[in-house]
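Progress note, project year one: complex with magnesium ion.
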Amino acid sequence: MADAARAEIINGSGTIRLDNVWTRFGGEESWIHRGLSFDVRVGESFVIIGGSGAGKSVLVKLLIGLLAPERGNVIVDGIDIPHATKGDLYRTMKHIGVLFQFGALFDSLTIWENVTFGLQDRGLSDRELRRIATEKLKMVGLRGVEDRLPSQLSGGMRKRVGLARAIAYEPDILICDEPTSGLDPVMSDTISELILQMKERLGVTTLTITHDMTSAYKIGDRIGMLYEGRILACGTPEEIRTSSDPIVRQFIEGRALGPMSIGGEEA
Amino acid sequence: MESGPEFLGSMWVRMAWISSIGRYGVDSVARYGRVLLMLVDTVRCTPQRPLRFHLFLHQCLHVGVYSVPVVLVTGAFTGAVLALQTASAFRLFGAENLVATVVALSMTRELGPVLTGIMVAGRVGSAMAAELGTMRVTEQIDALHTLATNPVKYLIVPRVWAATVMLPCLVIFSDLLGIMAGRFIMVDVLGNSPVAYYKRTVQFLDFEDIQIGLIKAALFGLSLALIGCYQGYSVRGGAREVGFAVNRAVVSSIGMIFVINYLVTAYFF
Ligand SMILES: Nc1ncnc2c1ncn2[C@@H]1O[C@H](COP(=O)(O)OP(=O)(O)O)[C@@H](O)[C@H]1O
Ligand SMILES: [Mg+2]
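Model obtained:
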């Protein structure tokens, strides 16, 4: 029994699977996800695109176990997240790096302490941690900011520090919520490049949420469009680019007029 | 005379009023229930590794050391006004030497702990609600979770225990300053005998009085930190909601201080 369970975990490690997920807040009538299903394979880069308020950030919260779906399965790194014990959940978190939409840096800690937060329990000296922080910050194109506080950085810099923090402990799965929004085109491309490198050099499974189509085409092995609570269309960047679905077309071309219903809420 | 629809209308208004009180009551009970659950969670997380003792010390600095000035001022002026008020009344009976006793007992049993609790609730409980609330709305608490760190253990455990330990220490300062200020008024301002003041202070002041004050202080510290942390931790929304949480943290922790104060006094009566 225990062996069978372990085997399943090994099979599932580095993957994400959502199966017919239904989510809503409280007793509200409106469902955020209505039967959302998709798979991310080991070492794959999956991109989710979708409008504001489509439930993309809520999806991230499902994947890290901060919200539970009302129905359906959420399996990340082989663990049934909504039903995992606290211990299992934290063990899984050590294999997952998350970049939050606004960086979510710890205000009271310096940049290097932020970057190495996930390495605290490894018994490394401060010198060593600083060295790792400097190295990771260099990867995201930042130098000489180790001793600053998050409030002394620009929004784009904070996001890059957030990415450095998410990759510092070399996760198997990297989840990025709008990594390029609010960055200039050059920096957006740098971040996209970095996510691509994580996948290509280190074999990290990446799930990126974005509405920056340039970035989506660049980093996605597959792109799925989240619309009205489920994946409306899913395919390679080429398939999405040439999709004939009018809603997909409207989204990727960024037109205000079209069949897409603009949700009442903007997020 | 009340006509039909109007009468029904006013009935409805009255019923809505009653039901809103009912709902408020249920909400408050539910809220205190959730605060207690957070206490249980805090106690359960406390012994878990890593202990992170430095976070506790850091909070002790914030809750305890930085609160000393405001607590000293409060204690001193309370002791002084107590001495002045009782002196003017007791003079009528020629019982001025009892002023020392009144000051010592009131300070140690009631005023020292309660006023220190209120000052610290305003200074520290509010800051805890604001800090945790901001961390919540900027997803820093979610980020802690993704870095495999239990937010209750990392944020709430050190704050709650620091306040529980530091409040009694602050109350000792407050008691001392209050008694010294009472002596200053009686001896240096009103010209009474210092020996009599000293005698009357120690004659009726038992260790038990001080102990009750310190037990109260520890409970005040526990509840103000717990309520401050709870309010901050459970914020949903944005900056506006953080403001409301700070507001609620201060009001309900001060209210709680009065309730606990009564209960402890009644228990040891
Ligand atoms: N904590 C919450 N309580 C209630 N509704 C929420 C909450 N978080 C998000 N929502 C709602 O869920 C929907 C999706 O939000 P979100 O996932 O943040 O959108 P986005 O796709 O832009 O990231 C929005 O309509 C939002 O109002
Ligand atoms: Mg979002």
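Confidence is low (pLDDT under 50) at residues 1-8 of chain A.
Chain A touches chain B at residues 61, 64-66, 86, 90-91, 93-94, 96-98, 100-102, 104-108, 117-118, 120-121, 165-166 (CB under 8 Å).
No further modelling is planned for this target in the current period.
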